[in-house]
Design goal:
Layout (H helix, E strand, L loop, with lengths): L4 E7 L2 E6 L23 H16 L10 H16 L13 H17 L8 H4 L2 H7 L1
Antiparallel strand pairs: 1-2
Helix pairs in contact: 1-3
């Protein structure tokens, strides 16, 4: 069961959470917490994701969708949603968030590395330093 609520206080890794109208009498004390990233995707992330997908499309890898940018985009977005139990992923400023964008780009880079896709843009120049270093 997922229960909506909000964080009341934080002290290190100790959170106090106020749940919205949930009867907790029937549940255990073990819980999971999902943090939502409220930061919008950056233009740099969006451009880099689309550049990688275009490079994958140009690489003639992937059978029926090779060479088709939209088919590559649809495939990877669908795969990301399946892997992360999401209904959709957006790369728009209004709907996308930085965490999903970083994880989506990671998936694209992992695919590119595994299939020797030549990238038109280098990760170290396109991404935040810690994130980009992983792929260099």
């Amino acid at each position: 069961m997922e229960a909506p609520g909000k964080v009341i206080s934080r002290r290190g890794n100790i959170l106090t959470i106020q749940l919205d109208d949930v009867d907790t009498d029937f549940y255990t004390d073990s819980v999971g917490v999902v943090f939502r990233d409220e930061r919008s995707i950056t233009a740099q992330q969006r451009k880099f994701a689309y550049a990688i997908m275009a490079d994958i499309a140009k690489s003639d890898i992937g059978g029926f969708w090779a060479g088709d940018n939209k088919a590559v985009e649809n495939y990877f977005k669908s795969q990301y949603c399946l892997d992360n139990d999401l209904d959709y992923i957006s790369l728009s400023t209004r709907l996308g968030n930085r965490t999903d964008a970083n994880e989506f780009i990671s998936m694209l880079l992992d695919f590119s590395l595994a299939h020797n896709v030549v990238l038109s843009r280098m990760p170290i120049k396109e991404l935040e330093s810690d994130f980009g270093r992983r792929f260099e």
